[in-house]
Design a protein that fits this description.
With 127 residues, the protein is of the alpha+beta class. The chain contains 4 helices and 9 strands; from the N terminus they run E-E-E-H-H-E-E-E-H-E-E-E-H. The strands form 2 sheets. The chain has a 6-stranded mixed beta sheet with strand order 1-2-3-7-9-8. Strands 4-5-6 form a 3-stranded antiparallel beta sheet. A hairpin with a 4-residue loop joins strand 4 and strand 5.
């Protein structure tokens, strides 16, 4: 249709969230994992584990809403924050490669992140 925006084609969406050791581990649809320190957000930093785990997706993964905390954060906001989050690549043709995209460093996933990934996927399989 004429006049319609096509910007939704480039929208980054999350598909899974884990909260672990003071970090939000946000799994994006494109295969990247975004690691965001909860300490960067006072309401998240002071929240209980129960409050953090009570979240809802906004717009099928465009953002995250914590009803107990009255907090809404967008995936795009994480990507453009002053304190740049780190991305971890779950799989690349060359695991030794380090890439930079939009000023963010894409790192191959380390053993620690691999263990988190395994635990997350084993939890999913058990459910």
């Amino acid at each position: 249709m004429l006049g319609m925006s096509t910007s939704h084609r480039n929208t980054v969406r999350a598909k899974h969230l884990e909260i672990e050791s003071g970090y939000l581990w946000i799994f994006l649809e494109d295969g990247r994992v975004l690691r965001v320190p909860t300490a960067d957000y006072p309401s998240l930093a002071h929240a209980s584990k129960k409050q953090l785990n009570n979240f809802e997706w906004i717009g099928r993964g465009l953002g995250i809403h914590w009803p107990d905390l009255d907090e809404d954060l967008s995936i795009e906001g994480f990507l453009h924050s002053r304190t740049k989050p780190k991305f971890f690549v779950l799989s690349t043709p060359n695991q030794a490669a380090v890439q930079t995209v939009r000023g963010l460093t894409l790192l191959p996933i380390t053993r620690y992140q691999e263990k988190i990934k395994e635990r997350i996927f084993s939890k999913r399989a058990a459910n």
